[in-house]
Write a structure and sequence with these properties.
99 residues, alpha+beta, Glutaredoxin, four-stranded mixed beta sheet, 34% helix, 16% strand, NrdH-redoxin, Thioredoxin-like_sf
Length: 99
């Protein structure tokens, strides 16, 4: 089973050859966003959860950040979801200037 704890790396679920998955994983790597890539067929429990959050479809890429699922996100969305989770900011909260 896929266990995700506080401050864990985003997990990118993808299908081999999917151009959207390739683009996202490449962008995350180029921009220094730490992540873990998992093929659907290598994690049946994770793939089942992906299908659950995407109306029965294995949408590639689908990313798990903390306890939040992102379907076909851009690299900035993955980066921001991770940094917001680490700072305890709820998704969709208004942006405020830090100290």
């Amino acid at each position: 089973m896929t266990e995700v704890g506080p401050m864990s790396q985003p997990i990118v679920y993808f299908k081999p050859g999917c151009p959207f998955g390739i683009r996202l994983r490449t962008a995350l790597t180029l921009h220094g966003v730490s992540h873990r890539s998992v093929r659907f067929r290598d994690d049946e429990v994770g793939a089942a959860r992906v299908r659950e959050v995407n109306d029965g479809n294995e949408v590639s890429p689908t990313v798990l950040v903390e306890d939040r699922w992102l379907t076909n996100p851009g690299w900035r969305e993955v980066r921001d979801a991770g940094s917001n989770a680490e700072r305890g900011i709820e998704p969709g909260a208004p942006w405020t200037e830090g100290p």
